[in-house]
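As noted in the main text, all predictions were made from sequence alone. Below is one such record, for Recombinase family protein.
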Amino acid sequence: MIALYERVSTDEQAQSGFSLDAQKERLEAYCKSQGWTDFEHFTDDGYSGTNMNRPALQRLLRYIGRGQVDTVIVYKLDRLGRKQKDVLYLLEDVFDKHGVAFKSATEPFDTSTPLGRAMLGILAVFGQLERDTIIERTKSGLRQRARRGLWPSASFPFGYKMNDAGVLEIVPSEAEIVREVFRRFIRGDSRKSIAEWMQKRVPNQYVDHYYILNMVRRRTYLGQIVMRGDIFEGQHEAIIDEETFAAAQRELKARTEQRQRGNGGTYLLSKMMTCGECGAWVYYFKSKQKLANGKSAHYLRVQCKNKKASPTLCKTHSFLARDIEALVVRQVRDIQVEPIEMALDNASDHDAILDELESALDKVKDQQNNLLDAVQAGAIPLSVVKERLERLDHERRAIFEQMGDIQRQCASRVDTTPFSQASQMINDLWDDMAPDEQREAIRLLIKNIRVYADKHVEIEWNV
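Prediction:
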């Protein structure tokens, strides 16, 4: 049997004369010119030549393995494959091994002659060169798009859609979810809990903790485009402001370092301090100083780890631990706790989002009603549309979840009860507390302490 193999991967190839119909017509004409009538078509429609995982090609290989094929004919060598390695594998390890000849209808060679085999190897090299050139040109074109501030991919980040000009446009309802993801991450929620929260609101998108990690790292939300490590200013509008993004990166860094260092600590502020000058961890250490009377004095101090590594890395100094602890305790005892209202940054934005969600909800309800009407009229069996109805109901509930989030934000307040209780306990009982109780109380109130070179501290509270 003569096997006629055709492949097309893109509309551009079809427009350039490589359509499947054109290939079939040429191959059948070639067979007729040779007097061959026993042939069969093996056609891969829409499959790239850069890999071997093509249904028709795999079926052809099974036929060859069973000894049912005498000759394989293609319109052009690159229809068989775009990689030199794959082409040579097929010719040497499959076709030759099973005594199958290989011919091209448009190129002057066949593997039944030594000259044809040599020419085939040369053409395979040039075929791969052409593929590599196309890849390089494509990458260059995508980079030029990024330089111009246009999105360089067919897929785009959650929170955006792409218009006809190639510029990302904000999807308001999705953008609000992005902002809430950043808010929850910055306040200390786990990536897993954020992923579970988001999954309920976007049922058609799989969300896990890695997805959340990629979101908080993505500079696209700042209005930028990253291409191979280079950052370009995009033409699209930012969803997240610089301050919020920077806070998320600090939180990400702190979580990473905390995981590396472990939890707990011996001293009052162990593993809670960072350097206000360079951002590195500030740690406790013991020092010894020789006194005038010849005796030695021992001190507990705190120091930036970068300063210890090299004096040029940070301009801060080491300080007596008791001095820094006193500064922190003084601020803690002076704090006045009041409920903090979470007001909306822009009420009109939330109204627009609610309008969009209500519109989406109406569309889902219309689709459900249309399907139910068709079932009641006997036009469609319930079994046919049952899965679709369930999916629509899932979408409806997800929209309700989002609407509820927005409405709750309009009236919600931060629960400061644990914070207030810890603050009151420090005010009333600090001097009577045991060291481990003091450490626990401090950690209820404080997320991070930044220590500066001029010996002042800034506290990031757990509210």
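The CA atoms of residues 29 and 105 lie 9 Å apart. Residues 263-341+413-463 form one domain. These features were considered when defining construct boundaries for the mutagenesis experiments described in Section 2.9.
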